[in-house]
Amino acid sequence: MIPHTLTPALDYIDPGTGSMLFALLIGLVGVAQFGLKGLLIKAKFRLSGGRDEGHAADALPLVIFSDHKRYWKNFDPVCRELDRRGIDVTYLTASPDDPVLDGPYPHIHGEFIGEGNRAFARMNLLNATMVLATTPGLQVYQWKRSKGVTWYTHMQHGANEMTTYRMFGLDYYDALLVSGQYQIDDTRALEALRELPAKEMELVGIPYFDDIVDRVRAAGPVPEHPTTVLVAPSWGDSAIFKRFGPSILGDLLATGYHIVVRPHPQSFITETDMIEAVMAEYPASEQLEWNTDLDNFDVMLRSDILISDFSGTIYEFSLAFDKPVICVDTHFDESPYDACWLDTPRWSTTAIPRLGGWLNDDNRGQLKELIDACLDDEGFRAGRREVAAETWVYPGEGAVRVADYLEAKYHELTGGSLREPGARDDEGEQNTPGVESAQASAD
Predict the structure, then answer these.
(1) Residues 385 and 402 in one domain
(2) How far apart are CA 135 and CA 156, in angstroms?
(3) Euclidean distance between the first and the last CA atom of the chain, given in angstroms as a whole number
(4) Quick check: is 122 in a domain?
(5) Confidence at residue 238, expressed as pLDDT on a 0 to 100 scale
(6) How many domains does the chain have?
(7) How many CB atoms are located within 10 Å of the residue 406 CB?
(8) Which of 155, 216, 265, 309 could form a disulfide with 177 if both were Cys (CB 3.0 to 4.6 A apart)?
(9) Are residues 120 and 133 both part of a single domain?
(10) Closest C-alpha to 294, from 133, 132, 92, 68
């Protein structure tokens, strides 16, 4: 099935559409090849009793790959749990100043492997049993599946749907660690349309959301402050600044509230001219603040409401910090994304109205009234509870469940254990090879 949004007129194909169709053709060929390869690999595992007998003895047991330092917040709680269990991890990062390189945990061994294509070249020749990553596009763009890697596992960035990755973004992973049943349903629908073998999918929750909740509790009450509005645009043609232009900041300043703008890091890479022009037109002042902190915890903690577009920050702010949001109606273009293959509406279109208000051309002139209404509406608090139940399973257990999955999968693939023989975790339990860790609580 080819989405109708990708079907051009028969008498003319513009360069952009032609490029997209060519990429789609290449992707479909790759899907077919990968599907056959996946079936052969699974058959081999079954015939060998679940062991990869041909795997090199010197393969790294477990590798975490991060294409940018900003994903340390996603991996940190998982690394902390793996370190607690005495499991050695090779953490390969494409950022020279990634926090992992400061050596926060004894068993997590950080290594900078270069930026951009240099990092992907290293990953393409990797020799490892398992790789855990948040990076989409495996086998689609520069990052290819290495012949020396047995199992690729994807852990999502946040709480929203996984179909807003660029097309084929997750097709070539072996397993996905997810946080809601709708993500499983969407993935299975895509697999059926593309005739792909079913990936392993494990509900684990959201480890870094659990961390945020712990940090909020530890921080205590926020000191008295002027009403603060955090603006967190995503990047691309469907994002806030492309939709409304820089003048949206003028509308926000007119409310009299303190405004904090936190651009998406990708904007400084692929939209440099645009974001620099916006910052020049609306420079920092007593009322307007530009924020580029690696860790967004402090700015979210002191903000009262968030305005964003289709960024996963919406769910982080509303669910983990328990605060209202306003989503900008940016007329999101689904055509470059997996979502365009599905006939069902994106989950976020039903979730966001329960979390806060919508900002569009019709109510842009009443922005202050919209902000005030969202701040005062207690109904959104109940809505946040509903949305959290759909997209954040097992709150408080995310890191434990990810670590449990990795241990069990390694044992299934090799017959061995990720833990060192005789090692003890922080609770004094002896680590026995081949024995899977216990679940933190019953399912």
Answers:
(1) no
(2) 8
(3) 37
(4) yes
(5) 67
(6) 2
(7) 28
(8) 155
(9) yes
(10) 68
**19 belongs to a structural domain:** no
More confident call, 405 vs 1: 405
Retrieve residue 352's tokens.
Answer: 């966001």
Sign of the dihedral through C-alpha 279, 281, 285, 289: negative
Share of residues in the chain with pLDDT > 90 (%) = 61
What pLDDT does 434 receive?
Answer: 34
Measured CA to CA in angstroms, residue 69 lies from 90, 94, 95, 206 at distances of: 15, 8, 6, 18
**d(Cα 383, Cα 161) in Å, to the nearest integer?**
18
Higher pLDDT, 50 or 25: 25
Tell me the pairing of strands 108-112 and 89-93.
Answer: parallel
In terms of Cα–Cα distance, which of 134, 180, 137 is closest to 156? 134
Taking alpha carbons only, the member of 395, 5, 424, 433 closest to residue 204 is 395
What's the predicted TM-score (pTM) here? 0.78
Ordered strands of the 175-178 beta sheet:
108-112, 89-93, 60-66, 127-133, 148-155, 175-178, 200-203
Alpha-carbon span 225 to 298, nearest angstrom: 14
Rounded distance, CA 315 to CA 312, Å? 6
Phi, psi of 360 (to 5 degrees): -140, -175
Domain interval for residue 377: 220-391
Residues whose CB is less than 8 angstroms from the CB of residue 16 and which lie 6 or more positions away in sequence, other chains included: none
Residue type, 346: R
Q: Dig out the tokens for 371 from the structure.
A: 């902000």
